[in-house]
Here is the input.
Amino acid sequence: NAGVMQNPRHLVRRRGQEARLRCSPMKGHSHVYWYRQLPEEGLKFMVYLQKENIIDESGMPKERFSAEFPKEGPSILRIQQVVRGDSAAYFCASSPRQGWTDTQYFGPGTRLTVL
Amino acid sequence: DAKTTQPTSMDCAEGRAANLPCNHSTISGNEYVYWYRQIHSQGPQYIIHGLKNNETNEMASLIITEDRKSSTLILPHATLRDTAVYYCIVRPASGGSYIPTFGRGTSLIVHP
Here is the structure.
């Protein structure tokens, strides 16, 4: 049973470009969570999604960031017009059942570097 | 508004037990204690969780005090590969709005 998959593992963008980060949850998991980890800091929650629904986006920056989890395919975290401060590791987690009450399993992360 | 407090760092000799403490004095009756760890440059890895009773699995043991205000994660025979940041978090046992907070965790260094 494959774990949570994230790609790319490393992504380099120049300021002003768009970054697209993909997350495929574990088989049978229908809940996805995105976290951001700035250098030398802990994980910060960004958004929680179910298939075709955003359940909680209270941790998402108000501008330039968006997330989706379509009926088919991986969840996408999209960052438009990236800035140097967006450089971080972005982790995706998935769980099989409802929300925060279930154990989350994390992917290996995508390390975004903005030049 | 941290719900858990952990020491910033600890070290342990290889082969010895590593005991990582966590204080969660404001824990509610319906909140679980979860432990994750993050090895350098990797995603967090689930270790164990518990509500009231002590728990054990192939990775670790979790000892929760009777008043549930603190807990200890025990790695019985630490290896060099256990060097990581260990996060203790509390999570509700039932649904509702909740934002998980990982905090800084405890950086455990296992030395030869």
In short: The radius of gyration of chain B is 14 Å.
